[in-house]
């Protein structure tokens, strides 16, 4: 029996050390060397070095003077991330979208872009289509008493052009750039 048990226990111990300790440490080391920013959460800091968030996770912005993110079914909490699972026929979804549309509507600009009133699959999408960011220019310009052309330039400077997919704007990065603008 000892001839069977000893090799089995030795193999379990060896595989535990290799797959449970050595491999994770090696992958962590490679990630820290090759992809340091991504391995540490893609964190964004302001000019003073204060941590403001992650470029991968949306966060709420209160007030008409800020660009608004997509709504979040989980109140922007990463623990409860996910869609609301409300069907298009659900009256609660229609009421929320109608209320959000009413809050964000700008006279003379047409319908509110869908990205501003519908949640993403995770509820934490940090990016907006460029058109959804541009839709907010007149509201923010009025609230901050600044020129809409300056806001358009900020959007252009913060537009990400991925290899695949549409152009998007990271709302946190855009709002940090907006905070640096003189008022």
Q: Helix coverage percent of residues?
A: 40-55%
**Major sheet:** 3 strands, antiparallel
User: Radius of gyration in whole Å, from Cα?
Assistant: 23 Å
Structural class: mainly alpha
Which residue ranges are poorly predicted, with pLDDT under 50 across at least 5 consecutive positions? none
Number of domains: 2
Oligomeric assembly: single chain
Question: Roughly what fraction of the amino acids lie in strands?
Answer: 5-15%
* Strand order, sheet with most strands: 3-5-4
Q: How far is it from the N-terminal to the C-terminal residue, by CA?
A: 81 Å
Report the average pLDDT across residues: 85
Series of secondary-structure elements, N-terminal to C-terminal: HHEEHEHHHEEH
Keywords: ATP-binding, Cell membrane, Ion transport, Membrane, Nucleotide-binding, Potassium, Potassium transport, Transmembrane, Transmembrane helix, Transport
Membrane topology: Single-pass membrane protein
GO molecular function: ATP binding; P-type potassium transmembrane transporter activity
Subunit structure: The system is composed of three essential subunits: KdpA, KdpB and KdpC.
What does this structure look like?
This protein has 183 residues and is mostly helical. It has two domains: 2-36; 42-179, no CATH class. It contains seven helices and five strands, in the order ααββαβαααββα. The chain has helices spanning 2-34, 36-39, 91-104, 130-135, 137-144, 148-157, 171-179, and strands spanning 43-45, 51-54, 127-129, 159-160, 168-170. The strands form two sheets. Strands 3-5-4 form a three-stranded antiparallel beta sheet. A two-stranded antiparallel ribbon has the order 1-2. Strand 1 (43-45) and strand 2 (51-54) form a beta hairpin. The longest helix has 33 residues, at 2-34. The relative contact order is 0.12.
